[in-house]
Design brief:
- The complex is a heterodimer of chains A (380) and B (587).
- Chain A is of the alpha+beta class and 380 residues long.
- Helices cover 23% and strands 36% of the residues of chain A.
- Chain A has two domains: 2-253, 3-Layer(aba) Sandwich (Rossmann fold); 261-378, OB fold (Dihydrolipoamide Acetyltransferase, E2P) (Beta Barrel), CATH 2.40.50.
- Chain A has nine helices and 21 strands.
- Chain A is elongated.
- By secondary structure, chain B is mostly helical.
- Chain B folds into two domains: 35-65 and 369-587, MetI-like (MetI-like fold, Orthogonal Bundle); 85-308, MetI-like (MetI-like fold).
- Helices cover 71% and strands 1% of the residues of chain B.
- In chain B, strands 1-2 form a two-stranded antiparallel ribbon.
- Chain B is globular, with a radius of gyration of 26 Å.
- In chain B, 48% of the residues are buried.
- Classes of the chains: A alpha+beta (380), B mainly alpha (587).
- The interface between A and B is large, with 64 and 51 residues.
Chain lengths: 380, 587
């Protein structure tokens, strides 16, 4: 559906471009060689901290930013194509026919709800513009889908936050675009509303089956909504995959840290057979499974999610695999879980356990680590 | 969601390529330079460049060169009399003092009007707008009637009590007082636009953070409106430096020269020395250029953070003044009396008298409408009114139309050289009216088309002169509109022109309307350029008044003044009602 190949966008290099290519090294690469594909009906999320290039990528797809080079195509239409020199295809934003929801929603304050939604249809070229009656029908239909029918004649600025979000969505969807772009659409809302709208958005997207690209820095949002996630860092995609894979098998330390919290323990691969690794750490030996199949002797970092740790005041047995001993340093009651920080050797391990388990600080405990929930992070 | 893939209009034929095939860019489709957008942008840029540079070129050429080549004799003649320091001192004291007074008054009034539940709101808007619609020459004459040491009414009232006439309008303080009060509405209009487009929750959040009203004002409100404030300061400093009426009527008597009155003095003496006038103008130009540079430097920092109008709606909620309400109310009444009632009453009083005298039963019993009858019998009066109307509406429409697009070019576009457009539009700011008139007359004396001696030359002068103010209004509004509002229209499929017309223009309309009113009104009182460009048959109202002043017929002048003020009040009221309707709705 959407295909992006070798997208490059730099800022600040414009002045040097006139002189010589080599002089543009001072330019900052906002997006550096990004490629991915979004399949029909997917909700594809670009996730990363601010400044990672996710918004620039989205704006390049929208046509609001002109990349330096690369290819962007939606279906069989080439939106942008440039090899960096020679001929360039760059379809202007207003010819791309995509839908977009902006971070601020960009609701036009001088128009009514109806006018805001009708605008994309009204501005079509005369030969292609639907009749007033058809426009009214389409707008009413999309407003009904968004449960905004009653607000139709109201001034757009009089809507509540959630209604504004739905209005922005209605405006983006009224032309039935092949692709919907969402730029942090939930970041303007309060937490409760954000959570309910997150599911609302997911339901709508799945029901309408509209292919979407979603930009966010909120990992919880990304995990909950997406069919595919591309984690970006410093202009590049560092990992691309399904939410569960990314959470359980982070490609590197950055991804593991950015998506949820994790304990990182360095070690060396002692033996490996068919993905079953035995890793030696300063706290003891760990058995774990990983698809990466690293050779014996490799330096690795083991990533242990807090919920992969179970705590017990009694040992399962002597010298059992994946069982460490430590002392509780502190704990915090979170409602649906209890967080413990446990000192193990020279490391502090965070364990998130069932609220029925709550162990006082200073108590000696045993940590049991589920081998299927531990992953290896290569050291680079 | 594949519906529109089959839609040929959304998927232009030329951009189809075989599925799975490599993208094949076709250069033949790369034709953006010929879009209407480019024509409009290039046309606007060219018009601004022409208006700004041609007169300036003539000014500089005329000052530095004569028939023999480079000649600096004009500077020697201009500054040779050893009163250079005094000239500089007077000019800076006058401009700085007037700016300080008008910024303080204008900003306070704007804040109170927009953001607080101030009493007498209607009266109050009139109070701050009326000094603007009273032309400078009338306002100055009114203050002569009020505070002249010989005939001033205030002095006549206070002399028996104090034993001496306390006021003398013919001093630098008098000049600052009149100019400052008269400029405060410009600040008011600029600041009202800025306060209106500011999200009140920014202030409310400061109050919630524990800040007092005063702290909020100092740490949140004022920093947020800093761009508007800086541009107001710049505008006032330069209008004061270029003000002609006040220094000419109040300063020349006692030999208090500022640059403009000195230029006029040099031009009026015989033989006329254009070179010396130009040399003085070049100095004035240098000062103004430095002023612009400093302001830009200050305003340049973090200009992006000032996008205070976002797509998110907000509802302006006026602050309650609480116990300060009566104090503020009395202050506004006082301001109203000093700036409006006093000057206007004295004008009306003078218009009704056969000759000017201190008020007494005798004076009141001699009230007559003869002066008005005389005005209505003058053929030139009706003609001047018509000319002023044509010029005001024409110049306001042309300037705001050009500047709305120019503001987009300089604020939003990525077109190379966009900064130049903005700089060009500010060039006329540094050309004093009197010098602009002179330069333009030179340009069109040599022009092949018959523009010299027609009303068109005045229109060109007015458009040139008011271009910077139009730009200020347009670009201040433009920076406060979030670019996402524009981008969302583009993504919705609107062309550049449609986006401009349907999204930007309506959102800009409060600023554009304010700019339109301002240009309309100031072109009515324009005197310093017109005085060198008008020809018999093309007189405007301000010229008619100037002629009466020169003739010493103060009472007829007052009658014309009263009629003119009434006409202007009517126009501003209509325009304001109109503007209120197209602007952002208020609760």
């Amino acid at each position: 559906m959407l295909r992006i190949d070798n997208l490059v966008k730099s800022f600040g290099g414009e002045k040097s471009r006139g002189k010589k290519k080599t002089a543009s090294s001072a330019a900052v690469f906002a997006v550096n060689n990004v490629s991915f594909e979004v399949k029909e009906g997917e909700l594809f999320t670009l996730l990363g901290p601010s400044g990672c290039g996710k918004t620039t990528t989205l704006r390049s797809i929208a046509g609001l930013e002109k990349p330096d080079s690369g290819t962007i195509s939606v279906g069989d239409r080439v939106m942008f194509s440039s090899t960096g020199r020679g001929r360039t295809v760059n379809m202007p934003a207003n010819k791309r026919g995509l839908g977009m929801v902006f971070q601020s929603y960009a609701i036009w304050p001088h128009m009514t709800v109806f006018d805001n939604v009708a605008f994309p249809l009204q501005v079509r070229e005369r030969s292609d513009r639907p009749s007033k009656k058809v426009i009214a029908e389409k707008v009413e239909r999309v407003l009904a889908t968004m449960q905004l029918s009653e607000q139709s004649g109201r001034q757009a600025t009089k809507l509540s936050g959630g209604q504004q979000q739905r209005l922005a969505l209605a405006r983006a969807l009224v032309i039935e675009p092949p692709l919907l772009l969402l730029d942090e659409p939930l970041s303007n809302l309060d937490a409760k509303l954000r959570e309910s709208l997150r599911y609302e958005l997911k339901r709508l997207q799945r029901e309408l089956g509209i292919t979407s690209v979603y930009v966010t820095h909120d990992q919880v949002e990304a995990l909950a909504l997406s069919t595919q996630i591309a984690v970006m860092e410093r202009g590049g995609v560092v990992q691309l995959g399904k939410p569960r894979d990314i959470y359980e098998q982070p490609a590197n330390k950055f991804v593991a840290e950015f998506i949820g919290t994790s304990n990182f323990i360095p070690g060396t691969v002692a033996s490996q057979r068919a993905g079953r690794h035995c890793v030696e750490t300063s706290n003891g030996i760990l058995y774990l499974e990983s698809a990466s199949q690293l050779p014996v002797g490799s330096e690795v970092v083991v990533s242990i999610r807090p919920e992969a740790v179970e705590l017990s005041t009694t040992a399962r047995g002597e010298q059992v695999a994946n069982e460490w001993q430590g002392t509780v340093v502190t704990r915090a009651f979170l409602g649906d879980a209890v967080d413990h920080v446990v000192a193990v050797g020279e490391h502090e391990v965070r364990a998130r356990v069932n609220p029925s388990v709550s162990i006082e600080s200073g108590t000696s405990v045993y940590l049991q680590l589920d081998p299927s929930k531990i992953s290896l992070v290569p050291v680079n | 969601m594949t519906a529109n893939l089959a839609d040929p209009a959304v998927t232009p034929e030329e951009l189809r390529r075989p599925a799975d095939g490599p993208p094949e860019p076709r250069a033949a489709r790369w034709r953006w330079p010929l879009t209407p957008k480019m024509f409009i942008v290039a046309g606007v840029a060219a018009a601004i460049g022409y208006l700004a540079l041609v007169p300036l070129g003539y000014l500089i050429w005329g000052t530095f060169f004569d028939a023999q080549g480079l000649d600096l004799g004009s500077f020697e003649r201009a500054y040779g009399d050893g009163r250079m320091g005094e000239l500089w001192g007077n000019s800076l004291a006058f401009a700085g003092g007037a700016a300080l007074l008008s910024i303080t008054v204008g900003t306070t009034l704007a804040y109170l009007n927009v953001r607080t539940a101030v009493p007498f709101k209607a009266l109050f808007f009139a109070a701050s707008i009326v000094p603007l619609i009273v032309p400078g020459i009338l306002y100055t004459v009114s203050w002569i009637f009020l505070a002249s040491p010989q005939i001033g009414l205030l002095n006549a009232f206070l002399e028996p009590i104090l034993g001496t006439a306390p006021f003398n309008i013919f001093t630098i303080w008098g000049m600052i007082w009149v100019e400052g009060l008269h400029s405060s509405p410009i600040v008011f209009l600029l600041m009202v636009a800025a306060f209106r487009s500011m999200d009140p929750s920014l202030e409310e959040s400061a109050l919630m953070s524990g800040a007092t009203r005063l702290q909020t004002l100092r740490k949140v409100t004022l920093p947020l409106v800093r761009p508007a404030l800086l541009s107001s300061i710049l505008v006032i400093l330069i209008t004061s430096l270029e003000s002609f009426e006040v220094p000419a009527l109040l300063g020349l008597q006692n030999g208090i020269y500022v640059f403009t009155s000195r230029i006029y003095f040099v031009l009026r003496s015989y033989p006329q020395d254009l070179g010396a006038a130009g040399a003085l103008a070049v100095s004035l130009l240098a000062v103004a250029v430095i002023g612009v540079a400093v302001t830009r430097l200050l305003a340049g920092k973090g200009s992006k953070t000032y996008q205070t109008v976002t797509g998110k709606g907000f509802r302006p909620r006026p602050l309650d003044l609480g116990k300060w309400k009566p104090v503020v109310g009395v202050g506004i009444l006082f301001y109203f009396f000093v700036t409006v009632v006093g000057p206007l009453l004295v004008l009306l009083y003078a218009a009704l008298l056969p000759f000017y005298q201190a008020p007494s039963w005798e004076a009141i019993s001699s009230f007559t409408l003869d002066n008005f009858a005389q005005v209505f019998e003058m053929n030139s009066a009706a003609r001047a009114l018509k000319n002023s109307l044509i010029l005001g509406i024409g110049a306001a429409t042309i300037v705001m139309g050009l500047m709305a697009i120019a503001a987009w070019i300089s604020v939003r576009s990525t077109i190379p050289g966009r900064g130049i457009v903005e700089q060009l539009s500010f060039v006329p700011l540094v050309i004093p009216g009197i010098v602009l008139g002179l330069s333009i007359s030179f340009v069109y004396l040599r022009f092949p088309l018959p523009i010299y001696g027609t009303i068109l030359i005045l229109l060109i002068a007015y458009c040139t002169k008011y271009m910077p103010y139009g730009m200020r209004y347009a670009s201040t509004s433009m920076t406060q509109i979030s670019s996402e509002l524009e981008e969302s229209a583009m993504v919705s499929g609107a062309s550049w022109w449609t986006t401009f017309r349907r999204v930007l223009l309506p959102l800009l309309s409060p600023g554009i309307t304010a700019g339109f009113i301002y240009i309309l009104v100031v072109s009515f009182r324009e005197l310093s350029s017109s005085i060198l460009l008008y020809s018999p048959g093309n007189e405007v109202l301000s010229i008619l008044i100037w002629e009466q002043f020169e003739n010493g017929s103060f009472n007829v002048l007052a009658a014309i003044g009263v009629l003119m003020v009434l006409a202007l009040m009517f126009m501003v009221t209509v325009a304001y009602k109109l503007g209120a309707k197209v602007g952002l709705r208020e609760d």
